[in-house]
Specification:
Strand content: 35-45%
Oligomer: single chain
Distance between the termini: 28 Å
CATH class: Alpha Beta
Strand order of the largest sheet: 1-6-5-4-2-3
Order of helices and strands: EEHEEEEH
Largest sheet: 6 strands, mixed
Helix content: 10-25%
Shape: globular
Length: about 120
Amino acid sequence: MSIDTGGYVVPGEILDERGKYYIIFSEDDQQALHELLREGMVAKGLFVESGFEDRMPEGVTYRVEYGGQWQWDVTWYLLNFNVRIYDPESKLLIASAHSLRTSLGRKKPEDMIAEALDKIFID
């Protein structure tokens, strides 16, 4: 069983809990991970919107991108989830996190997303 979670915030950067986060919808997302990510971020008290890149509203503080890799082992499960937070103006990476779990250590997607978010939004 392999489990790996980790996160990174660029030294000197602080993610503003009062900022506006915009999740860029990934066209590869067939399992609505963007909705689970939005729900996980809202549960942390963040203001979050999601949609296509060309519909990103003015005044967004953070641009959020994500990805997931699904694997088959009797049933489909989320093998890997990653989230990246960028400055929307400079497009520089501010923070990133991931959760990876093989078949025997699998969890529900919302739990893996929560694991990743906990690595960058520390209570």
